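Form 12-C: Joint structure prediction
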Amino acid sequence: MSHIETQAVHAGDRKKLGDYIPVTTPIFGATTFYYEKLGQLERVFAREVEGQGYTRYGNPTAAAFEEQVAALEGGDIAVSTASGMAALELALMIALTDRRRKVVAADVLFGQTYLLLQHVFEPAGVEARFVDPCNLAAFEALVAEEKPGCVLIEAVSNPLLRVPQVDRIAEIAHAHGALLIVDSTFTTPALLRPLELGADIVFHSATKYLAGHADVLGGVTVAREEHRELLTALVRTLGPNLGPFECYLAMRGVKTLPLRMRRQCDNARLVAEALGADKRVEHVHYPGLISHPDRETVRRIFVDGRAGAMVSFEIRDAGREEVFRYINALEMVLRTLSLGDVHSLVSYPTISSHRNLSPKHRARLGIGDNLLRLSVGIEAADDIIGDLLQALDAV
Amino acid sequence: MRRKTSRIETLAVHSGDRKKLGDYVPVTTPIYAASSFFYERIEDLDSVFDDAKPGQTYSRFGNPTCEALEDLSATLEGADFAVATSSGMAALRLALLVAMVDRRRRILASRDLYGQTLSLLLNVLEPQGVEVFFGDPCDIESWESLIVEHQPSCVLFETISNPMLRVPSTDRLCELHRRNNVVTVVDSTFTTPVLMRPLDLGADIVIHSATKFLAGHGDALGGLLLAAEPFRQAVTLLNRTIGPNLGPFEAYITMRGMKTLVLRMEEQCANARRVAARLSQLEGVTRVHFPGDPAHPDHATAARLFPEGLFGSLISFDLEGGKERAFAFADTLKLALPATSLGDVHTMILHPATSSHRDLAPKRRHRLGIGDGLLRLSVGIEHVEDIVADLEQALVLSASAAEKAPS
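Section 2 - Result
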């Protein structure tokens, strides 16, 4: 099972239950599991034998999804969570256990990630410092100065789609005794396998590309053997579990991940080129374009040099009002949050993912009021492009 | 929606549901699997984000199926709002974080708590700089002196403790905490709003493992946090950021379970009284812990706080012969399930020393009264004679098994 297309379809499923083997793993709704002898349950709790005891400690449907993602990421252990934010929190907690309670994070991050650091970790005595991970010299200087317990980056930044060099960042982090956490939501193992590039912990909002059908909220944290015990203990105590119904849907989604991702990336390139050729568009941010500053990094570390399926673009001379007019004129592309789904959707960072930042902070990060973030779906590229261009008439 | 005039049996069946969707009104709320929601005009999404208009945006921020469950639970508890979480532990953690926002990071907790709750306090919160002190909330005088001495920002206790089934005076404790400006966080999993409404008694935040009595059928892991208006902003902010959301499928079946909560709870409590009375007469049972027993140290408190004749459906009891006998007993049960949960329609038995409280040091377990022969029984809704007969036959069989075994 060396190819991702094969792993996605086969990993995790096919556990023998009784005499027969179901082709897909059942949805285990049960909260608890028991054995003919109580001593067997005790051995399970003592982790002397494999088995199930209580769903917060582990559930077979969740375990199947976790095994599938671990296989795709090349990790030793995966844990599914109620949301991507819950997965991030777990990752940070493991990385900071018995280490310096300090984080060096990318300066451009998903808005809620800032809030997590500010409202949950800061009160717990964790200091966070921010720096541009695409500027390796500045990054290394800050890590050397702060000596953080961990470093946190997004494999592709949200919403400006910058691509840091995960392998170099891992070297720098490790040289200064820090662990590296990578949010690989925008890339998925179909484009990038951060653990192979030296990252220590990878997490996903599985709501996005992994599940891919806009019908599951969920997350997953993937790590190496050395973090298994801590990760397992934290999940048992904090209980951020993903439900078995959601695990089934997420796993079902991952089976088509390689296909969807390939089509979405191909479509995104065509969309980026078409938008870039239109005079009404001021700037297109897409890591696959020659004009993108991280083009070379993508070519070097992404699978087949595919540059992802997110495209951000700025409408020329547009403010909030013009952008609203543009979004309302879209006929097929959905105006909603989230990303990575089979359908194309557009979001407006100023009022959604980054609305909690001050206008000044947004401007400093390069998130202007004329910036839109597009998640390209698997529809026919011509239909997507046609819709995006016709709506420009309304501006 | 809070129809205060109705009784709990009615509220349990009607609250939360019946939101109009288009022209029709579904009798139960649909399972909204959608991760995100959109509007015909983007201006509407912007207004919803501004809280200028009600609506849905993204499932981590709110989901209609979860909200139906939250409305129902808030109504039953007399809370201003509720938040559904992926597990009871997630609800508890959220409650403690909220109780400490912008306050001293210091907690006074009952020494008699669920094992993972102790683990949360000692292994997760303490390393994050939270100071944790323990006391006995059933001894109000010593509890008060601990509050005066340590000045905690919040206190945590269980309305019926796990597994020793002690019943603190929630009303008197809440009054004491209020006078000392301390936030009261109460785990009401063992009582549910059928036995007690802690917010009415002055508690600030109530949490439940909804996995237990509320869902009640052994098929949904989940938690609920309930509180009054002043905590809404902090809960909403932290919930959105940490994202410990309950899934919509689980929210639906939890709500479905809650419709029969009152019936189940009454039957389970009535069964438990008869089972406890019978157990105390049986050979091999050295002690029965049940708040309905007049000899129980908190019997008067339970009688004062709970509706007449209801004392919960959990019974703990000590068997002579220690762990070996306890295991033999559990293994010979034919009806009761030896599984790790409680509050379900079926009767369940658990050995706390090797399951819920296995991570505690043996010394600490013994100080709490959790001996190796202690078993915790969650009485279900089966016919009570069948439950009793099962326990009786297991006592006989396990006694002979223990005799045969080399000591």
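Section 3 - Comments
Chain B has a mean pLDDT of 92. Chain B has two domains: 8-30+62-258, 262-404.
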